[in-house]
Amino acid sequence: MNVSSDLAIIGGGIVGCATALAVASRNPGLKITLFEKEAQLATHQTGHNSGVIHAGLYYRPDSLKAATCTSGREALYRFCAEHDIPHQRCGKVVVAVDDSELPALEELERRGHANGLSGLQRLTAAELREHEPHVRGIAGLFVPQTGIVDYVGVARKMAELFRARGGTIQLGTPVTKIRKEHDTYLLRVGNDIVQARGLVNCAGLHADHVARSAGLLPDLRIVPFRGEYYEFKPQRSNLVKHLIYPVPDPQMPFLGVHFTRMIDGTVEAGPNAVLAWRREGYRRSDISLRDLAETLGFVGFWKLAARFWRVGIEEHGRSFSKRLFVKSLQRLMPEIRSSDLVPGGSGVRAQAVDTQGRLVDDFRILTEARMVHVLNAPSPAATASLSIGEHIADRVMEVIG
To answer: For residue 161, what are the CA distances in angstroms to 83, 165, 166, 203, 393?
Structure first.
């Protein structure tokens, strides 16, 4: 069966849903279809998100991440308030444990001011304990704009509004092949062929696969990293009042193990960051020979591994040893004991790595013919989803008119 659409969007995570809503809101007559290979929306990165609404503290001021996080954060708070989605602007503290971390803490404060954050509060050790009595540190930074939310609920509301504007969502429909024919793209979706004038790739963990299927040769590859969490037992969750983060290593894209109070009241601790043997490998036992071969056959991965092999060994050690994981948490909160924690969830991050072994830090969006490919959408993609959706919609209108 052949069906037609003005625009096909591949991927039903929060970025795909936000993009669909943004394009539909601008173009009431446009026939838009969103394809999601799973039976439900927001199953992967969005569904395994820790739920943090990021303030925009970490990002280089001239980056797309900084711009979209700043605007997207406030848009998200308004969206949640308008649609009664549970959320909380709870704030967070960033903790410097020793003198060596003070320059990086000062740089975070500088970036925060450059990115328009107001109300940042530099904390002495005593003031830090007032915010978080169980944390050990010599200084800190309180960031009032940080919050928590259920991103699956946000994505589903976006999808509901998209449908109300005439959009179509097809679940359980993986796009297995893309072919350009004259002025249209032919997408194989199950046993059907979908004709579309334009295409948007928001496939997340499979974004590079979709781009290659469409005939592109991006100079990057998605390398999946799994983050594993522990959860506080209910009787010990009072150890954490806000969100607690360490001063991050500027050489790494990960923020380090931290403490997150979730919107349902539970408290998570983590994550580590280990190479996943499958793009959707949420357990250590999840292995895909195809995904593993792609990673190990990619020259960029080996260049990355040559630079960070020591870090990789440490992260894998924490994956297999609860004692080592707890030890890393005790750096911020010494009184934590192994008995306070139970295994929690995990998520897989779609980390784009280029052929030189560099971690792609900013959003990477490629426009080609009448296609828009979101090849890298790292944190704060969920926070910035409404803003990045508008940005992608701008690109869409440029290529399909």
So the answer is: 11, 6, 9, 21, 16
pLDDT (tens digit, 9 = 90+) per residue, 364-382?
Answer: 999 999 999 999 999 999 9
* Residue % of the chain over a pLDDT of 70: 98
Q: What is the pLDDT of residues 323-348, one digit of tens each?
A: 999 999 999 999 999 999 999 999 99
Second-level CATH architecture of 222-354:
2-Layer Sandwich (3.30)
Look up the CATH number of domain 2-46+152-219+361-400.
3.50.50.60
Residue extent(s) of CATH 3.30.9 domains in the chain: 222-354
Question: For residues 348 and 29, is the Cβ–Cβ distance under 8 A?
Answer: no
- Tell if the pTM clears 0.90, that is, is over it: yes
Pairing of strands 192-201, 184-189: antiparallel
Residue 37 corresponds to which tokens in the numbers above? 């290979």
Distance CA(80)–CA(253), nearest Å, equals: 28
CA–CA distance, 8 with 371 (Å, rounded to integer):
10
Partner residues linked to 274 by β-bridges: 226
Q: What is the pLDDT of residue 255?
A: 75
| pLDDT digit string, tens, across residues 11-58 | 999 999 999 999 999 999 999 999 999 999 999 999 999 899 999 999
- Give helix 64-82 / helix 151-164 axis angle, nearest 10°: 80
Residues forming CATH 3.50.50.60 domain(s) in the chain: 2-46+152-219+361-400
